[in-house]
Amino acid sequence: MTPSSRTPEGDDNTCGVCGHEVRIEPTRPPGDATCPHCGALLWFADKQADSPTTAKAAMYWRRAQVALGAENWQAAERWLSKAAALDPGNDGFRQELEQVRQKLAALRPTKRRRKRQPD
Question: Residue 117 domain-assigned?
């Protein structure tokens, strides 16, 4: 694995996928960065936002990413819904949730009407 090119300044976080502790500078906004070990998307709390709420939303986002990796669309929708409810201003949460809902809609079987049999 190639070491990250980022400097050691930045915010602490733990990757929910590979479990490595990282210290990198996230983008502001939206407050994300990729894990230098596995490439998973990490979310960082906004320093001006309510930290416990944002941390909980980020936890739900990480769980959704794991569910998406396993193609568990129902679980991903549930976690993304919770993340979007906690951080309604986060466009990334809402866009991902909409994509998952579209995927679920595409996977649902369409109902067919039976043809009426003549009496």
Answer: no
pTM of the model: 0.52
| Gap between the Cα atoms of 111 and 81, Å rounded | 26
Same domain, 98 and 73: yes
**Tokens 């998952």 — which residue?**
100
List, for residues 26-60, the tens digit of each pLDDT value: 877 677 888 888 888 887 765 555 567 777 888 88
Q: Based on the fold, state whether residues 64 and 100 are members of the same structural domain.
A: yes
Residue 84 in domain: yes
Own/partner contacts of 4-11, CB < 8 Å, gap of 24 or more, are 4/36, 6/33, 6/36, 11/44
Domain that holds residue 35: 11-43
Cis preceding-peptide flag for 109 (omega within 30 of 0): no
